[in-house]
């Protein structure tokens, strides 16, 4: 099971608390995780990536294993620790403000 | 027992206020959707328990919320606003052409007789419609494909379709307004559109009387006289007596004819309200006085309404969708400020009281009259 951490606003929107666990078939990629996430929580469609282009929203970042994976291809395999469920895949609302 | 429900959208969430017909004691519910911008929230005229809300953020985009119990509980519905066909371009601030790009829903207008049908005005300017309670949205492409669209340009707040008026006496007739393109009318439920800006004069554009390019801030009508339209423009308060075919300036003795909201008394179709604002760049109240101006003559002659409103050191703004009226007698008038106060008058504007204050900056105010 893949572990996913949503930012607080999206946890509220999806009506979940804490980490999510998603069943994602290999190869585990950002696209595969987001596909599974949106299938289970359709209210998140469009909040992380554009509904048409699937481009990541500008103020959303993807972190895992202390790395920023936001600029990687969504089809790149994610670290083995994420695929094995050892480390969570973090969806982060970028810091922006003063 | 009659009552009212006030739907308030702010920069950081939604609030719902309720009162009985006396409109003296208010219950405040909220924040709903805390931390999100609520550009607009409006109830269905056909079913007052059905309310739609436009929820958005720069981080997480657009969400549409729907309530079927008067705002006690909410569910997310469809939020896919995809332009149909070739996207096309519009005029950008620097004079270049730029593709239309969805940013947010500015205005939700539930249909008059069907709670599942709603029109949505979006940025970049286009019109969408749902007939399944918001689950899916389809663009009414005739507007964005109008030949004038490449000449539309954004106002300071973005190129938004911010006003939708449904004509109750002429089914299929819809008026919309876009900043900064102007007013358009459809007579076939949004299939085709034509600009209706004759008489508008905007010195800020190369051709002051151009067919499009006018920064219309808001339009309003009274349901008993849908051919009479009132407009608050970026400079000038205007009136049309012929369903938008022509407009004339009715700013009269207003201290400034700049402002954002404009609305009409529920029972007196010639009684109109505006909030004059100092501009071109200040965008706060002139002389630090919060004054609503009322005309009982369809414009030209205006009186300042100040009782209960701060008359010194007040520098808030009142945004375009932040004024509404109820249908009780006497008519109630409501408006919200960028300072987070919502003022109400239960006597058609003669006196005012804050019904809630110190909210986040108020973006929109709508009122439902409940029986």
Strand order of the largest sheet of chain B: 3-2-1-30
| DSSP summary: helix tally of chain A | 3
**Number of distinct beta strands of chain A:** 5
The count of strands of chain B amounts to 30
User: Average pLDDT value of chain A?
Assistant: 95
| Largest sheet data of chain B | 4 strands, antiparallel
What is the H level of CATH, i.e. the homologous superfamily of chain A? Answer: Beta-grasp domain
Instruction: Determine the CATH superfamily of chain B.
Output: YVTN repeat-like/Quinoprotein amine dehydrogenase
Shape of chain A: globular
CATH architecture of chain A: Roll
CATH architecture assignment name of chain B: 7 Propeller
What is the percent of helical residues of chain B? Answer: under 10%
Tell me what portion of residues of chain A adopts beta-strand conformation: 15-25%
Q: Largest interface, and how many residues on either side?
A: A-B, 18 and 13 residues
Radius of gyration based on Cα positions of chain A: 12 Å
Q: Based on Cα principal axes, name the global outline of chain B.
A: globular
Radius of gyration of chain B: 19 Å
